[in-house]
């Protein structure tokens, strides 16, 4: 979940956005050519300029949508970054319990287990979510990773916009 702050012509409106809605806003902003800036806490700032005619002249007004995660990503230590990258690259990241019944995540090329402390941090900061045993990054984790790497528009588009379908020859 995200807190959503919208700057519009009538002022500022605050509300909440689900992960799906926030991802939809980011995809739509990228399609429209707006500026999308991921934040280190796992949020995003979408900005653009609205133009309208008024009193015979063109009026330009700033607009924005700021998405702030309810649970911020926090500082991403090296072990957390490594685990997030492994999970993001893995097509088969999954959760399991180790010999002492502690939650663990297996990800990476050879299915290396993520250490117990890092696994706890990933779940505690809501950087990963589990669906039927499969583990994936949350939107907060994805945005925090992009911010950690100073992602540009192309990097954001690669993550959020689907690749065009191949044209048959």
Explain the overall architecture:
This protein is an alpha+beta fold. It is built from five helices and ten strands, in the order ββαβββαβββαββαα. It has helices spanning 19-32, 78-89, 116-124, 139-148, 153-160; strands at residues 2-8, 11-17, 35-38, 44-54, 57-69, 94-97, 103-107, 112-114, 128-131, 134-137. It has a five-stranded antiparallel β-sheet. It has a three-stranded antiparallel β-sheet with strand order 6-7-8. A hairpin with a 5-residue loop joins strand 6 (94-97) and strand 7. The longest helix is centred in the first third of the chain and has 14 residues, at 19-32. The radius of gyration is 19 Å and the shape is elongated. The termini are far apart. The model has no long low-confidence stretch (mean pLDDT 87).
Structural class: alpha+beta
What is the number of helices?
A: 5
- Largest beta-sheet characterization: 5 strands, antiparallel
Shape: elongated
Q: In which range does the helix fraction lie?
A: 25-40%
Q: SSE string, helix = H, strand = E? A: EEHEEEHEEEHEEHH
What is the topology, as strand order, of the major beta sheet?
A: 2-1-5-4-3
Strands, count: 10
Report the radius of gyration as a whole number of Å: 19 Å
Low-pLDDT parts are none
Euclidean distance between termini CA atoms: 44 Å
What share of residues are in beta strands?
35-45%
What is the average per-residue confidence, as pLDDT, rounded to a whole number? 87
């Amino acid at each position: 979940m995200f807190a959503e702050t919208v700057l519009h012509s009538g002022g500022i409106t605050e509300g909440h956005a689900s992960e799906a809605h926030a991802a939809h806003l980011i995809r739509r902003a990228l399609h429209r050519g707006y500026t999308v800036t991921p934040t280190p806490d796992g949020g995003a700032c979408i900005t653009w300029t609205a133009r309208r005619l008024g009193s015979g002249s063109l009026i330009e007004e700033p607009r924005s949508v700021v998405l702030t995660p309810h649970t911020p990503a926090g500082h991403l230590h090296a072990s957390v970054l490594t685990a997030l990258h492994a999970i993001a690259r893995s097509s088969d990241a999954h959760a399991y319990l180790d010999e002492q019944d502690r939650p663990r995540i297996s990800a990476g090329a050879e299915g290396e287990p993520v250490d117990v402390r890092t696994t706890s941090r990933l779940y505690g900061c809501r950087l990963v979510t589990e669906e039927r045993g499969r583990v994936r990054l949350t939107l907060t984790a994805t945005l925090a990773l992009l911010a950690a790497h100073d992602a540009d528009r192309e990097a954001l588009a690669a993550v959020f916009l689907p690749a065009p379908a191949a044209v048959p020859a």
